Amino acid sequence: MKKKNSQPNSPLDQSKKKTKLKSNSQKAGVANPMPWGGRFEESMNELAFDFSASFDIDKVLFEEDIEGSLAHVEMLMLQGIIDKIEFQKITTGLKEILVELNSGNFKTMGKEEDIHMSIESRLREKIGPVAGKLHTARSRNDQVALDERLFLKKTAKRMIEVLLDLQLTLLAKATEHEHDLMPGYTHLQRAQPILLSHHLLAYVSMFERDKARFTDAAERMNQLPLGSAALAGTSFPIDRLWVAQKLGFREPTLNSLDSVSDRDFMIEFVSNCSMVMMHLSRLSEELILWTSFEFGFATIGDAFTTGSSIMPQKKNPDMAELIRGKTGRVYGDLMNLLTLMKGLPLAYNRDMQEDKPALFSAIKTTRQSLQIMSAMLKSTEFHKERIESSIENDFSTATEIADYLAKKGVPFREAHEVTGKIVGFAIKNQVSLKDIEFNTLKGFSSKIEKDLYQFLDPKKSVAMRKSFGAASPDSVKYQLKFWKKKLVQV
Fold it and tell me: How many whole angstroms separate alpha carbon 286 and alpha carbon 292?
């Protein structure tokens, strides 16, 4: 479909030239007649054709288009709408075209609007006028809706596969660092000590929900729109249920008008992509922080970082930054689709041709980001000693003091206030909680005994977190076992 262009001028300049050449004769348009050309006396203006053509974008759907056509033409034969010889000619031609498309040898006249008409045009070249019977009892409206649903059902499975790979990578890292301590944060401030494994497993849970969202979306779109025709159905005696079963759909759609006029299934899919990117962006942000000199918690492998053109000491987490940045692109794709559909009256409108650029962009960006994150994490080394030493002298075990007092009958709000005063004393005197003398601690509350010191040890603090799903070693051990059983057997 690419046109040779020997002119150095910009596309805008070329458009002006074309307009000038055709200003005296609007009939100087696309010579090849359109499938709807019988109603029109003039050929389509070449500028208008170039503006509206979508072959370079929707050619991605060629497999689904032929898959749908093969099922449709078989149903036409079984229903007696076409005969067996016609069915065999059309089927053979479609299968040959599929081979051409897969091998890169597909050729058309170059004047077709989209992949659907390109395939039909090529079929006509191969088998003659009988190719026109393929379009009996269907419209491009329900044909496109079918292709998109078939494509997204397959894509949902592939997205789940790359999500699973990332989960397994996180699970392997969590297993490797099962017992390693790290500071937990809220507001990016030291909160309580946790295990690095517990932190990594939090993302495994997030991506599990993302997988479930794609599974749910695939189930919601698992209805066959083909047979709705342009908007009102068809008078031909078609069998939509048979086609649905043939193509792996749960059932046909119930309302022909709805079938061709909505793209909510695409919006939901891109929304799910946005959710994945949000989770990836958060993980990227943490890797960016953790690999900084200030944190020093981790080092990303050289293959997933870059240097500076002027500062030789730099090792930049560019892949993590790009994932974080590309998240905005997928958000934009979602807003693109929502804005595209918000004002369209029923049924089909040509605006809906613009659904595919946003969809394909979101899918590509999300899939690549997942793959990069998984590979980058595999190359990442976490520095146990550095991470654990960072919590030796902070105040992340302060909650243990409040809990200790509460267990001795002190109302929690009072225990919280006492603990705050102890922390304030430690900060003012530049000492850690465990280094405060016992008599000083006793002065804050008569309930404090020497056994409090054992709870100020970060390891014992973590071990005390006994609630289900908590950060204790026992809880993490259970989580690891749970995820290994759930993910590895998939």
Answer: 10
- Under 8 Å between Cβ of 224 and 253: yes
Q: Give the Å distances, CA to CA, from 404 to 268, 455, 474.
A: 48, 8, 21
Q: 445: closest CA among 407, 470, 483, 415?
A: 415
State yes or no: is 187 an active-site residue. Answer: yes
pTM: 0.87
Strands 251-252 and 223-224, by their bridges, are parallel
CA distance 165 to 158: 11
Q: Could you tell me which residues come within 8 angstroms of residue 235 by beta carbon, excluding any fewer than 6 positions away? A: none
CB atoms within 10 A of CB 38: 7
Each residue's pLDDT expressed in tens, for the chain with a length of 490 residues: 444 444 444 433 433 333 333 333 333 444 445 666 667 777 777 888 777 778 888 899 999 999 999 999 999 999 999 999 999 999 999 999 999 999 988 876 556 788 898 999 999 999 999 999 999 999 999 999 999 999 999 999 999 999 999 999 999 999 999 999 999 999 999 999 999 999 999 999 999 999 999 999 999 999 999 999 999 999 999 999 999 999 999 999 999 999 999 999 999 999 999 999 999 999 999 999 999 999 999 999 999 999 888 888 889 999 999 999 999 999 999 999 999 999 999 999 999 999 999 999 999 999 999 999 999 999 999 999 999 999 988 889 999 999 999 999 999 999 999 999 999 999 999 998 989 999 999 999 999 999 999 989 999 999 998 899 999 999 999 999 999 999 987 5
Q: How does DSSP assign 455-481, residue by residue?
A: GGSHHHHHHT--STT-SSHHHHHHHHH
Which entry of 52, 179, 292, 308 is annotated as an active-site residue? 308
Angle at 322 between CA 316 and CA 324, to 5 degrees: 110
Residue indicated by tokens 């059309």:
90
Query: Among residues 153, 172, 162, 158, which one has the least CA distance to residue 207?
Result: 162
| Cα–Cα nearest to 362, from 313, 388, 327 | 327
Among 187, 235, 309, 446, the one annotated catalytic: 187
Residue 308 falls in the annotated catalytic set: yes
Evaluate the CA torsion angle 56, 58, 64, 68 in order and state its sign. Answer: negative
**Beta-bridge mates of residue 181:** 195
The token pair at 482 is 């749970």
User: In angstroms, how far is CA 126 from the centroid of its own chain?
Assistant: 39
SS (H, E, C) 173-191: HHHHCCCCEEEEEECCEEE
User: For residue 82, what is the enclosing H or E element?
Assistant: none
